[in-house]
Each structure stands twice: as structure tokens, then as C-alpha cells.
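note to self — DONT lose this again. spent like an hour looking for the file last time. sequence + predicted structure for the chain T wanted, 301 res
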Amino acid sequence: MTTTPAKPSKIDWQSLPAAKSGQFRIGGDLVVNRLGFGTMRLTGKGIWGPPKDHNESIRVLRRAVELGINFIDTADSYGPHVAEELIAEALYPYPAGFVIATKAGFVRPGPDKWVTNGRPEHLRAACEGSLKRLRLDRIELFQLHRIDSKVPAVDQLGALQLLQSEGKINHIGLSEVSVKEIEHARSIVPIVSVQNRYSVMDRAADDVVEYCDRANIGFIPWFPLAAGDISMSGTSLEQAAAKLKVTPSQLALAWLLHRSPVMLPIPGTSRVEHLEENVAAAAVKVDEATSKGLAKLARGA
């Protein structure tokens, strides 16, 4: 079934529900609402192949924009290629102020299989493929999905820097890195974002969050809802959520937004109903007492 392409539009992003999450300026020039959307779950089982319900995936992406989400995270490896193709199908031509962040650094031999590849020629081919699939002249935020231990980091980052100098990407980000790795990368190229696994249940990256906060680098937590584990986290979160008259998932997202002004959560879903529930979290306010109580839920605390 063919869907009608979205028409280009001028959107007042700060008047829509997602804007209640606050705004962040990525790299100094990309102003985004802090509650974004991650596209990994739009693909098939094992992050492989097309979605089970293609039309619903298109609806999710279009509804995200209607709700004020102007920061969408994806990767060439999601599908592979499927998530990027869905974004273009649903949303091209993109409205002004809409930011797509994509990633490269993996190859996918099969469902649930991920192999790092940071060779410069691979990163260049991945970038050029993403540009084509997303129908973009420039990718605003291009992230190294993983630092490949088999390739010198300077070669990987140098490849991205060259793509930047050619105007194919605007800003460079990292994913799943330590503070030491961020500092080393910043000695080679400017880094504007870091994407690590992080949630109220999993705070192993606390030191990275604090580093990003000090350096004003956007922190993009992936699995911000702990892949659904939030709903089974125990009575503390449930009680706090009930007190605020919200769902545990909404409180978990609100806690992330409260945690740091550089926090850019990207909860993903394949259903419009779940998307709307997530966006409602932008309006939930967390006080310090609630925040400290939720911090105790972290694994190992």
C-alpha cells in the first residue's frame, strides 16, 4: 500500500507538546526539543528487515512530528537501511528545524548480529548511503556507532572529519564511550554528542553524563526505558508514579530530563499509542526528593 508523502511545512516546534521537555542547542546551531525519538524499534525482529506493520511505522513517524519531536535518531545498521528509508518515506521533504541524527560503524551479517567496522572506507560508504536513503545533502549529526578496536581511533575520526570538511556532515558524535575515549576524540575533532546506554535503572554511565554536562555536550541515552524493564522495576517507581498520576515509563523519562539539561532521551516505539504516552512525559515535573528516591533504583545501588 502506497502512502502519501508528507508536505513540507513550517512548524513552530516550541508550541507543541514535546517542547515541554525544554530545548538544547546541539553544536551551537541545532536547536531541538529535548525529548526525541529513536527508530531502532521500527524495524523487524532482531533489528532486521521491514517492520511487521509498515503503515503503523509511517504513522508513528508522522505523529512524532505532529507532537513536536524535531530530533530523530537512526542508523544505517537498523534494518539495515530500513529505518532510514522509513524516515524519508514518511517525512520527506523535511520541515525547517527538523534534525536527523544517524550513525555508522557496524555491519549486519544477520538478525541480532552486530560486527564493528570503523575502516575509513566503510564509514565513507555508510555516510554516502545514508545521505541517499534520507534524501539529504548534509547529515546534521553523524555519530560513530562504536569505536572499532581493530582500527586506530585517529583514522576513524579522521574519516569523519574529512566528510565534515566536504560538507557531507555538520557535526560529529560518539556512541558507547568512556570519559577517556571522549577526551581523546576531542583532541582530534570537535564532539557535540555522546550516546550511551542509560536509564533510571542503569546508571553505569553517570560519569559520562556528568562530563557531558560540564562540557555542554548532548547526552543521548539509548534504552532510556531499559527496553521495557521500567514497568517491572518494583514498587518505588510505581508508588512515585502513582503519586504524580503518571505511568512508570513517563516518570522514568521525566527523571532523565530532570537529571541534566544536556539529556536528550530518544524513546522508541512501533505504536502511535505508546509514542503519545512517551511524549506526555515532557510535561511531568520531578522534584529533588523524588529524583533522589528514584536514583536508588539503579542497578548495583
